[in-house]
Design brief:
By secondary structure, the chain is of the alpha/beta class. The strands form 3 sheets. The protein has a 5-stranded antiparallel beta sheet, with no helix packed on it. Helix 5 packs across helix 6. The relative contact order is 0.07. It has 3 domains: 80 residues; 66 residues, SH3 type barrels; 157 residues, SGNH hydrolase (Rossmann fold). 48% of the residues lie in helices and 20% in strands. It contains 8 helices and 12 strands.
């Protein structure tokens, strides 16, 4: 069934009236002896009829186009309504009073308790948040910038969490910090140091920054490659303490040197081989040495790298750590 709007109906009536008037005029001309050739009249009448048919056809076609657009619009509206209806349904149990909790990672804040709701902001690691309730699908209702919002429960903890990433090392770790920054990371490092500083100073600082959920990357050795056995014994003696505290431990290999360095790559390879074989199986090995040998590196003094190389090395660490 075709639907014809009032506008199109008026247009068709106008065309029909024009056709009627034309035929009426032709008859009048015959009556007045103004037409001399009836074949001409037949041709004119046929042309008028054809023109009328074409105009009516266009009007109907345009009307069908309008109807199709209306149907299309209705269809889109129905689709949008369906999307709205398929969002996560949840219920909230309100707390008697707000509770202060902490973000254990950088996390999205959403308008509803599901990833299918719009993001309204973000919280950085360690941020405090006022929790006002919890949902039946393990999200928290929170007060966020004066409005009610929701955060996935696995990213909210009762106590201030450990720093996500803690780097412990020598001058290379110091320069890594300068290249990549400190957001959500802590650095326990000092230029020119090795085993003695690690044992006497760094170990006591680790609990200050590292805790449940922390990923700790140790990188000592380039300044005292002869102490491989001591590093193995020290790290292995603390691995129980660290893992029980919820810390995931990594040892990053000593990375290669260039021309002019006071140590050789052969010495570095020997140190790395000893540590990889001797460290507790709970200490995960990161082979930055092979990575930089393959990816390339730039060093001005043979020992330390430029910022671009440190950023590349950091990206490799993160690809291993996740």
């Amino acid at each position: 069934m075709k639907i014809i709007t009032s506008k199109k109906r008026n247009f068709i009536i106008l065309i029909a009236f024009a056709a009627f008037f034309s035929v009426f005029l032709a008859i009048g001309m015959i009556a007045a002896d103004k037409v001399e050739d009836f074949s001409t009249l037949e041709l004119s009448s046929s042309s008028v009829a054809t023109a009328i048919s074409e105009d009516i056809g266009r009007a109907v076609a345009e009307t069908e186009t309008d109807v199709n657009e209306i149907v299309k619009t209705i269809s889109v509206s129905q689709q949008e309504a369906t999307v709205e209806l398929t969002r996560t349904v949840f219920t909230v149990t309100e707390y008697d009073k707000p509770v202060t909790k902490y973000a254990s990672d950088t996390v999205n804040v959403r308008s509803g308790a599901g990833t299918d709701y719009d993001k309204v902001g973000k919280l950085a690691w360690g941020s405090t948040v006022e929790v006002t309730g919890e949902t039946d699908n393990e999200w928290y209702e929170v007060s966020f910038k004066g409005t009610t919002a929701f955060i996935k429960g696995e990213y909210i903890v009762d106590e201030l969490p450990g720093t996500p990433y803690v780097f412990v090392g020598d001058s290379r770790t110091v320069q890594l910090q300068m290249a990549v920054g400190s957001s959500d990371k802590a650095y326990i490092a000092k230029i020119g140091e090795g085993y003695g500083w690690f044992k006497n100073t760094a170990l006591s600082l680790i609990p200050v920054y590292a805790g449940k959920g922390t990923k700790m990357i140790i990188n000592f050795g380039v300044n005292d490659l002869a102490n491989a056995g001591k590093y193995i014994s020290l790290v292995n003696s603390y691995v129980d303490t660290w893992t029980n505290a919820g810390i995931t431990v990594y040892y990053a290999s000593v990375t290669p040197v260039g021309a002019g360095a006071t140590v050789t790559n052969a010495q570095i390879e020997s140190f790395n081989t000893q540590l990889q074989a001797g460290l507790d199986s709970r200490v995960q090995w990161i082979d930055g040495y092979t990575y930089l040998q393959q990816a390339g590196f730039t060093t001005a003094d043979g020992l330390h790298y430029n910022a671009a190389t440190y950023r590349s090395l950091y990206s490799y660490y993160m690809s291993i750590i996740g």
